[in-house]
Fold each of these.
Amino acid sequence: MHMTEQIILASGSEIRRDLLRRAGLDIQVMPARIDEDALRGGLVSEGVQPRDVADALAEAKARKISGKEPGALVIGCDQILNLGPEILSKPETPEIARDQLQRLSGQTHMLQSAAVIYQGGEPLWRHVGVVRLRMREISEAYLDDYLARNWESVRHSVGAYKLEEEGVRLFTRIDGDYFTVLGLPMLELLSYLTMRGTLPS
Ligand SMILES: Nc1nc2c(ncn2[C@@H]2O[C@H](COP(=O)(O)OP(=O)(O)OP(=O)(O)O)[C@@H](O)[C@H]2O)c(=O)[nH]1
């Protein structure tokens, strides 16, 4: 793919990398190692809304890598899961994942997927995709089997599910964009890159 500018994905997320590469973008990956828990904790304690927390974290990652690679277009990302006003963090253990999935069972939760593009230490573009996901009532037996089968695969997913794998069986309804669930507002991002001429139109 002929691209006019170098694009760097400042994320350690495999699916984000794969989505962009499968779309034909020749991107580099440079995960931004920021203290997400500290930054998120501070923002949440100030009462910042979930979508703005995701935006701020995505911006912090993009800004950090842009400082190192000022000429490139740097994409920072962050995804927040909230159940009503409460932000749930990525489950660290299968037990925490089980508790979290039990809380989400039979409820509607939201994912806020933020992406921010920096160049030369300045923000160029930002978007927060929002999705509503209704989870069916999950039995304890199924939940145990689901985690036994999928923990290794879903441990890095914010909701302990991958929609493109068995996780789809947890849901009865999803209002929003498939890619935004996976972790990137792809359609908005690609539209921007095409509009600005980074990608051929
Ligand atoms: N494959 C897959 N990944 C998902 C899904 N839902 C959420 N995720 C992932 O959950 C992770 C959300 O955590 P983040 O903190 O935004 O990102 P990260 O993986 O820690 O990577 P960084 O961008 O380096 O912070 C991302 O990697 C998302 O891609 C899904 O349905 N499928």
Note: The pocket of guanosine-5'-triphosphate is lined by residues 11-13, 15-16, 31, 77-79, 90, 156-159, 161-164, 167, 181-183 (CB under 6 Å).
Amino acid sequence: AFMLSRYESEFLELECIGVGEFGAVYKCVKRLDGCLYAIKRSRRPLAGSANEQLALKEVYAHAVLGHHPHVVRYYSAWAEDDHMIIQNEYCDGGSLTDAIVKKEVQGEIFTEPELKDLLLQVSMGLKYIHSLGLAHLDIKPSNIFISQQPSTGAAAEGESEEEDGSSPAGVIYKIGDLGHVTSTNNPQVEEGDSRFLASEVLHEDYSHLPKADIFALGLTVLLAAGASPLPQNGGEWHSIREGQLPKLPRELSSTFIDLLQLLLDPDPTKRPSAKELCKHPVLTEERAG
Ligand SMILES: Cn1cc(CCO)c2c3c(c(-c4ccccc4Cl)cc21)C(=O)NC3=O
């Protein structure tokens, strides 16, 4: 178009880092500040459609969620030439899915301390989201992004190690993709990925939505621990929701297995809250657990 769009005038597009039915995500440099951003460009949803609701919920959630070391930071969103555009913090370490695939390809596994660090960091992000009366509803490895070290980028300020508890040079996990976020008070649930969906949400019981995030987080950690790809439906889908943990190709301590079992309890009230996980001895004590 003859008129340079804001996207083209403000950003230099470096590469496409993701494509889906939603649209595409690009790694971009903002010309003004020289920082990297992840920018999702999607077709503008039909006015009044369910997709428009999703697009608006994503932006509302980012606006409410402000800044947290374990939630991907939002900078701006706008509409132009029939596209919706959202500009987020760029996480330079790929997604947890990429990290899991990389471990498998290299014949390595996440150690138990690494799995506990993952569970603790994402629990901190969920504690923040849940404390604001919101539930994510699409927690899964492809929606957890990795920053290799406290980035020097625009998002770095305000990140201090005691806040997120990870070692300074360690990996930082950030919850992203807020497209399914909903209020826990008056929920309008758009189900997330069925592989991570808690049974009660499938049955439209929305009385414990934060615990649905805890269930999905339990399955997410099991995948990082080496579990086979999860079923989308069928017998195995149901057996997991009856408390039958997917098999793991390696040993884990009984205390950690017991905790993961609790995250996947069929009864949402039995699952620990994100707040309880953040101070759970199995996750917070140096050698114990
Ligand atoms: C596919 N993909 C790859 C990445 C980079 C990971 O190293 C990525 C990011 C995001 C997103 C994203 C997700 C959902 C909504 C908006 C965005 Cl920008 C998608 C991303 C995002 O918000 N921040 C990202 O780094």
Note: The first strand starts at residue 11 and ends at 20.
